[in-house]
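Worked problem 6 (solution included).
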Amino acid sequence: MTIIFAILLFSFLIFIHELGHFVAAKLSGVQVNEFALFMGPAIFKKTVGETTYSLRCIPIGGYCAMEGEDTDTDNPRSFQKAAWWKRLCILLAGAFMNFVTGVLLFAIVSSPIKQFVTPVIEAVEPGCTIVRDGGLQIGDRFLELDGEKIYDQSDFSIILMLNPGDHHDIVVERNGEKLTFNDYLMEKHEFPNEKGELELRYGFSFGYEKATYEGKVKWVWNNTWKTVRDVRLSLQMLFSGQAGIGDLMGPVGIVGMMSDTAASAPSTLDAVVNLLLIGAFLAVNLAVMNLLPIPALDGGRALFLLLTVAIETITRKKLDPKYEGYIHAVGMVLLLGLMAIILFKDVFQLFVR
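Solution. The predicted structure is:
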């Protein structure tokens, strides 16, 4: 059931993305030749007006094929003939739809929540050195840690993992005032866990607050922008060497993660909520990743569009779109190669788990 849910979820996110391009193209008067869900040979086709709607056999991806996307044509309703701002809207519409979908899924997930864990120090264990005279106090709300905003309590451990060490820059709110502690010593000590075993912890716990309507709206907003920030942090880790190709996860790996998440949930409702939460993260991730200025992605196409408009305005000469098409083709080959590597890695890990 988890695999079926995952396939349906991926299909839905792809459909929403391509639907954004499709609707924007139609509203802009651009001719859409084909609107396809999935890739490979078609198993169903139906032509309505000028557009062919198809369902293809390989359940990965999809596309909205517009007239004159990568080559110039004489068709006055081709993509290249549309005003530059209309083309930009068409390119950004897919990511926009995924972003909106992520927000809506976060809103659905928030509906059954009764209380939230807050990044507020509520209690400390004997021996905790983080709360001390002249330093952090019980009731302090974490606002920033090492220059990164704290949206909720989960950010605390993530940011500390990215910034190892015992000294950190902290901004907290206390009695309505912001306090800054630079190079603050945060030491872990041995504390007994629920089983009585000693483990290294900071020795303090966060508090809870009732999930009001306003609190849920804030939670949806925070989780949306936190997901956007997490994409940046992930890319930062890749470029800094803190993460590698082996840490990337493709559709197969995500299905495995969703299966584990559903299996560990205490009830069916919890499993569905957790899977929808993953769907919200994926939707926002898909929106942000598609906007990266990489050839073949929507962000790369939008960047090339803006550069082309600027160059043609300055030189008064029209550039041949086929050269941009070559660049996007190379980018697509490289992206497909990366996807293949991640796919083989995920499949291999399924067999060795």
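Discussion: Residues 193 and 199 are 7 Å apart (CA to CA).
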